[in-house]
């Protein structure tokens, strides 16, 4: 009787969770099961169930395709650069910002440096293509110093750095939020004690501020492990061109071209599966250590 | 402990100057696009336009606003934002409430929470997702832009954490008065979390307005593209034939470049408009999921 009552009380809860759970099962777990297509010679007309089975054929092809090696290397390289520079820039800017005393000035600066985060890469791509064009504002500025016009967006060696710089431009402001909060959480008495001991601003920053931010920095770095193969799909798709494929083509853009544009469904799905598995492993490791070392929990 | 040494003073001035420069660097690209969009094409081609419009004209804007394709894309985006935000918020609330309850009240809770969490860590990827969208018959339908991204797991976790902080006494006394779960959710939980829900609504609006890739792959006709996809198609076309029936006289005022700039700026306006509302709340919003010490 008691259990019957309990179950009856739970019925509305099941009704509530049903619509979101159903959508989750179809559009998140559906594609996970759909990954079987990487082991099939997938034909959309036959579907996941009836396409002929080919085992590891596409994984073997994937390993010998020079394209795939190139995009994996590019992804790793670009994503690592971004993790390092994004984090470094956000830490430095947060420390400098916390030193601003004038409240109005600080607020205004924050408002301005946060906003690029909210613009889509379609818009930013349009803006930067104009900005970095041969007759764009950057080249005209460099021209003042006698520098010959540079084709920034079709220069292969430069392209990864353009990606890093434009991303740092876009997200550093927003990235300071968590670090600023960490700085605000530092006990002011520590600064006073350091001052009494004769520490100037730089020594206080080094011995008080940075150690105070340590947990946040470690957690942010651990959590960014999961994005080591995520070089920034939206950004690259809106900035790259065939002339920078050698350095700028990454896993996600390649999967898009191979899978959607050229209909090599199984091969693209195999590469996608490789990317998802690596990300899962690294995210799990990252979360595990963030939990162990800093007691970080999502819920 | 205020340090008054000259070196420290000089540092403060330099620091202030750095942030002035940084803020200017954040504004320059957008200001330049605005300046180009408001200038005549001859001035732009002559390289006269930096940060202020030269021989100011609104012709690029009137050219865009007279195009049917522009208004179609605007309409698709409008419908998408309304449907997308509505469905997504409904799913967030419906999932967050049961999952915020202790295991004793909802025995399937832990299992379902793990289902949601795992989907945040692992995904089938672009191609299988595309196939599932295709097999569920959503290609070319507005629902392709709404349903696959309706369950925002991160929002659900934020909301779930928020609901858990509501004192249980409130819902317990409501329970004693005979209120069921639906009533408690609608009359207690939702009214108490209106500020967080409002923040989430604005974030979801920006997300839907900014999304463009799903429009590109799930819509086969450009007439069904939302604004950002439409814009992306214009911007990446290798041989832009944007201006087709322009007369020679009109071409002196507008060019492909001024029109594209105007288009970029128009697409950025909605985000710039909601941004102040966003800024008021997002600091507390993103702190929710952060380090708990």
Notes on the structure:
- Chain A is mostly helical and 299 residues long.
- Chain A is built from 14 helices and no strands.
- In chain A, helix 13 runs antiparallel to helix 14 (265-294).
- Chain A is globular, with a radius of gyration of 25 Å.
- In chain B, 70% of the residues lie in helices and 0% in strands.
- Chain B contains 14 helices and no strands.
- In chain B, helix 12 packs across helix 14 (256-287).
- The longest helix of chain B has 33 residues, at 68-100.
- Chain B is globular, with a radius of gyration of 25 Å.
Which helices and strands, and how do they pair?
The complex is a heterodimer of chains A (299) and B (293).
Chain A: H1 2-34, H2 47-50, H3 57-64, H4 66-97, H5 103-114, H6 121-131, H7 137-144, H8 159-184, H9 188-196, H10 201-224, H11 233-239, H12 245-248, H13 251-261, H14 265-294
Helix pairs in contact in A: 3-14, 4-8, 4-10, 5-8, 6-11, 8-10, 9-10, 10-14, 13-14
Chain B: H1 6-37, H2 41-45, H3 59-65, H4 68-100, H5 109-121, H6 126-135, H7 153-164, H8 168-176, H9 181-192, H10 194-210, H11 213-218, H12 227-236, H13 248-253, H14 256-287
Helix pairs in contact in B: 1-14, 3-14, 4-7, 4-10, 4-12, 10-14, 12-14
């Amino acid at each position: 009787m008691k259990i019957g009552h309990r179950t009856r009380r739970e019925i509305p809860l099941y009704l509530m969770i049903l619509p979101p759970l159903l959508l989750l099962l179809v559009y998140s777990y559906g594609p996970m099961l759909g990954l079987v297509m990487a082991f099939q010679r997938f034909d959309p007309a036959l579907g996941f169930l009836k396409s002929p089975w080919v085992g590891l054929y596409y994984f073997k092809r994937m390993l010998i395709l020079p394209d795939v090696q190139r995009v994996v290397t590019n992804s790793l390289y670009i994503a690592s650069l971004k993790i390092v520079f994004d984090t470094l820039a956000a830490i430095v800017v947060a420390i400098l910002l916390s030193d601003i005393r004038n409240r109005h000035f600080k607020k205004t600066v924050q408002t301005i440096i946060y906003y690029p985060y909210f613009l889509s890469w379609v818009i930013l791509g349009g803006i930067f293509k104009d900005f970095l064009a041969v007759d764009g504002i950057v080249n005209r500025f460099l021209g003042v110093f006698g520098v010959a016009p540079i084709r920034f967006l079709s220069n292969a060696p430069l392209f990864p750095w353009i990606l890093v710089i434009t991303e740092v431009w876009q997200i550093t402001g927003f990235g300071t939020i968590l670090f600023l909060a960490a700085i605000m959480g530092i006990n002011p008495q520590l600064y006073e004690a350091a001052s009494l001991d004769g520490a100037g601003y730089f020594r206080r920053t080094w011995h008080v501020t940075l150690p105070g931010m340590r947990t946040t920095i470690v957690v942010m770095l651990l959590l960014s492990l999961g994005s080591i193969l995520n070089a920034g799909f939206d950004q690259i798709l809106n900035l790259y061109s065939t002339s920078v494929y050698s350095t700028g083509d990454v896993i996600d853009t390649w999967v898009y071209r191979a899978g959607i544009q050229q209909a090599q469904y199984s091969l693209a799905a195999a590469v996608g599966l490789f990317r998802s598995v690596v990300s899962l492993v690294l995210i799990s490791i990252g979360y595990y250590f963030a939990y162990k070392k800093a007691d970080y929990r999502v819920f | 402990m205020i340090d008054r040494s000259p070196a420290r003073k000089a540092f403060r001035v330099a620091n202030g100057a750095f942030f002035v420069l940084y803020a200017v660097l954040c504004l320059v690209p957008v200001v330049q696009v605005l300046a180009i969009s408001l200038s005549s094409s001859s001035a732009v081609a002559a390289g006269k336009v930096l940060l202020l419009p030269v021989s100011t004209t609104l012709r690029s804007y009137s050219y865009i606003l007279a195009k049917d394709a522009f208004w179609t894309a605007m309409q698709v985006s409008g419908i998408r934002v309304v449907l997308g935000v509505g469905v997504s918020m409904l799913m967030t609330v419906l999932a967050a409430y049961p999952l915020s309850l202790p295991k004793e009240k909802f025995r399937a809770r832990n299992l379902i929470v793990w289902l949601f969490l795992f989907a945040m860590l692992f995904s089938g990827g672009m191609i299988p997702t595309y196939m599932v969208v295709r097999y569920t018959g959503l290609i070319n339908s507005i629902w392709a832009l709404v349903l696959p991204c309706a369950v925002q797991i991160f929002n659900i976790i934020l909301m779930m954490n928020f609901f858990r902080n509501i004192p249980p006494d409130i819902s317990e006394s409501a329970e004693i008065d005979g209120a069921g779960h639906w009533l408690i959710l609608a009359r207690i939980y939702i009214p108490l979390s209106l500020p967080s829900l409002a923040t989430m609504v604005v974030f979801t609006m920006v997300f839907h307005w900014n999304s463009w890739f799903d429009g590109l792959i799930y819509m086969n006709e450009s007439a069904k593209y939302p604004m950002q996809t439409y814009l992306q198609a214009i911007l990446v076309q290798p041989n832009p034939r944007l201006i087709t029936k322009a007369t020679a006289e009109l071409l002196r005022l507008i060019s492909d470049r001024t029109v594209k700039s105007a288009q970029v700026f128009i697409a950025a306006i909605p985000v710039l408009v909601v941004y102040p509302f966003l800024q008021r709340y997002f600091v507390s919003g993103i702190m929710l999921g952060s380090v708990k010490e």
